[in-house]
Amino acid sequence: MSTPQPPMPQQAAAAPAWQAAPGTSYTSPIPVTRTHLGHALNSEWTKIKSVRSTMWTLGTFLLLVVGIGFLVAVQTTNEDFTDIPFTVPAFIGLLLGQICLLTLGVLVVSSEYGTGMIRTTFTASPQRHRVLAAKLIIFFAVAFAVSALSIGLIGLFTASLHSGDAHAPWGATVFMGALYVSLLGVLSLAVGSMMRHSAGAITTMLGVVLLPSILPAFLMMSDTLRTIGEKMQEYAAISSLAKVFRLNEEQGNGVAQLGLLAAVTAVAVAAAFVLLERRDV
Predict the structure, then answer these.
(1) Which of 82, 98, 124, 189 lies at a C-alpha separation of 20 to 30 Å from 180?
(2) Which SS3 state, helix, strand or coil, does residue 197 take?
(3) Of 191, 94, 105, which Cα lies nearest the Cα of 140?
(4) CA neighbor of 245 nearest in space, from 123, 49, 69
(5) What percent of the chain lies above the pLDDT cut of 70?
(6) Which residues 6+ apart lie within 8 Å of 227 measured at CB?
(7) 216 with 233: CB under 8 angstroms?
């Protein structure tokens, strides 16, 4: 008869490497990299191309600008372009299309506040100024590329229909027209960041665009306010776009109007950065 053997004590499982030395700090196996503006740009690009509002607003913008531009272009004759550039048919479509860029500019930032996604964004990237800067850069690049493509396409289409005595250069109108409507969109983004409310920010921007075109009609009824009304009408969005497209060379080429819009946009963007750092999410 054999003698029963006492049970052998089981050896404890080897502790993980990160627990082997008590008191040492935990080291994540995931490589940690220092974030920079490039990561924020990549994040914002992913957001803007993955939401439906971008496709709807930009699709409507292209439909209005290119569709109306082509319809206007086929109604024109060679004599119409002796003094004005081939991109003028885009002016009619941009009067409506700029509303799409205003809406998209607001939604790029205000939709995150509406859904609460902004808390996740700022948790992943506590540098708020970097997030806002990335939104501004990505939106401006998208808006400018789509606008320039639309205006340039209309210019090429119109040029293919007409020839002869037309000699007005139209390359500058592609750049300035795209820059003007893109800056309007950036101004909308800044207003959306300050107000954090989609409906309120869109309504405010519609007032900024439409009121300077309507109010002068009432101001110029008074001799005292006539000068203010004339200046307001001169720098309104509709009049500014007309000057950018050189509908009347005697009234200017739109550089002054473009400069004023750039200055107003810069002030609004600076205010958006300041308020973003001072307020809670």
Answers:
(1) 82
(2) coil
(3) 105
(4) 69
(5) 90
(6) none
(7) yes
